[in-house]
Amino acid sequence: MSLFEDYLQKVGEYGVIEETRHPVVVVSGLPSVKPNEMVVFENGQLGEVFLIDRQSVAILSFSRDPLKSGIKVTRTDQFMTVPVGESLLGVTINPLGYPLTNNPNFVYPSESRNIDSPPLGISQRSRIKSPFLTGVALVDMMIPLGKGQKELIIGDRKMGKSAFLLHVIKNQVALGTIVVFAAIAQKRSDIKKVEHYLETEKIRQNCIIVASTSDDSPSLISLTPFSAMTIAEYFRDQGKNVMVIFDDLSTHARFYRELALQAKRFPGRESYPGDIFYLHARLLERAGNFKHPKVGEVSVTVLPVVELVEGDFTGYIPTNLMSMTDGHIFFDSNIYFQGRRPAINLGLSVTRVGRQVQSDLLKNINNVLVNFLSQYEKVQNLSHFGSELNETTRNTLKFGKLLYEFFEQRTNTLVPLEVQLIVFGMLWSNLLDGKTYSLEQLRSSLTSCYQLADNKAVINQILNVSDMDQLIANIKAQEGMLLNLCKIKI
C-alpha cells in the first residue's frame, strides 16, 4: 500500500488539485485541513499547507517538477518533521532529512521533530555568561560574542564573510561545539567547497550541513533554516553547545517572497509578504542560553548572514534582521579593497551582549583600544601633511598601522585568546621595536608553544590580572622567559 493510501485510509479525506502555480497548488476539498499541516499527493510527493481560503487550500509542493491538475491529495494530521540524531553528524542532508550523497554507513535516525516548533520560554533561559570565541583577534577583542548570542554577519558579496565563518567553525569545533550549517539555495559547487574544507581540517564529524540548492523547489528552500534549527535543538537537549549558521537569510527571504506572490498573498514593502518579519523572528528566537537539568547550561549560538547591495544598510530585510539580533559584524568593501583581512568595519559593527561576558582585563583593553582607534582615525585625516606632523601624531599613525597589522589574520590561522593578549601586550609596550623577529613570527611561535600544558599554565599566570597596566608590567618582567618558551632569540 502506498503512503498516499495509508494516510487516506487513516484520515478519510482527500482533495483534488484545481490549479497549479508551481510550487503552489490550489486544492479543493480537505475540509478539516490545518495550517502548516503536511499533506501527501497521489504520486507520493510531500507538501505543506500554506494558505486556507473559504473554498480552497493553497499547498506548497516540495517537488522540483510542477504537479498536474486532477491529482489527488490527502491530509496526514501531522506537521512537517525532520529526523534528528547522532547519525547526522558528518552528513549533508536536505531540509527533509535525506542525505545528499551516497553513504552506505548512514543510519537513518529513528527520532523526528517538528520543523517549526515554538521557542522555549523565559523560565527555561539563562543570562548569557560565557564568551563565544571565534579565533579571530579583531572580533574576540573588539566585538566580543557570548554563547547563545544572535550576531548578524552582514556585507556585500565576496567580502570574506564565508571565510570568516569557516574560521569560526574550525575554532568552535576545537572547543567541542556542534556546528549546524544551513546552506540556503546555494550552488552545488559552493556546498562542495564547505564540505571539502571541513574534511581537509578533519572536523567533518562535528558538523552537519543542511543544504538546499538553487534548483530545488522554493518551498523546500524555505524549510532549510528551520530544519537546521530543529537539529540544533536536539543536540542542545543532549547537553551540547551548538552553533548554527544561516547562509544566507536574504536569499531565504527572496524565495519566501516568491512563494507568497505565487499564492496571491497581499504584498507589502518591496513585495515581501506581511509576515516576513515574523518568519525570521520566530526562527532566531529559538537561539539563546538555556538551563539544562544535567549540565547546567547549554547554548545555541546563531550567526545569520545577510547580503547587502553596495553596502546599503537601509534595505528591508537587513534592517529587519538587525532589529531582531544582538548585534552585527559589518564586512566593508572599502576596507576589503585596502587589503585588510578580515575586512571588518569596527565603527559600524555592534555587539549588544558580548561585553557582559568579558573579563575585567578584556573590558579594560577594549576601552583603551576603542579610544586609541578613534584617535587614530582622526589623525589619519591629517596624514597628507607629511613632514608637518608633530612627533606625537607620527607615533600615533605608526602604532595604529602596527595595530591593524596585529589584527591581520590568515584564514586558516587560529589564535587562542590568551596568545592574542600576550602579543598585544608586547606590541603595546613597544617590546617589538628593533627586534629581529616579526609580529607574525611571535604570534605563530606562541600559538604553537601554547598547546603544551606547562606553557599554558605559565602564560595563564601572566594573564591573571584585572587591568592592562598590570598585564604590561607582567609581560615586561617575563619577556625573556616568553621568548625562551617559543624558542625565539632576542
If you had to describe this structure to a student in words, what would you say it looks like?
By secondary structure, the protein is of the alpha/beta class. The chain has three domains: 3-78, Elongation Factor Tu (Ef-tu), domain 3; 82-357, Rossmann fold (3-Layer(aba) Sandwich), CATH 3.40.50; 362-485, Lysin (Up-down Bundle). It is built from 16 helices and 19 strands. It has helices at 3-11, 137-142, 161-174, 188-200, 218-237, 249-262, 276-284, 316-324, 333-337, 360-380, 391-407, 417-428, 439-449, 453-462, 468-477, 479-485; strands spanning 14-21, 24-29, 37-41, 46-52, 57-61, 72-79, 81-84, 92-93, 111-114, 131-132, 145-146, 152-155, 178-186, 207-213, 242-247, 288-292, 296-307, 327-331, 350-351. The strands form four sheets. Strands 8, 12, 13, 14, 15, 16, 17, 18 and 19 form a nine-stranded mixed β-sheet that branches. α10 crosses α11 (391-407) and α12 crosses α15. The longest helix is centred in the C-terminal third of the chain and has 21 residues, at 360-380. The protein is elongated, with a radius of gyration of 26 Å. The model has no long low-confidence stretch (mean pLDDT 92).
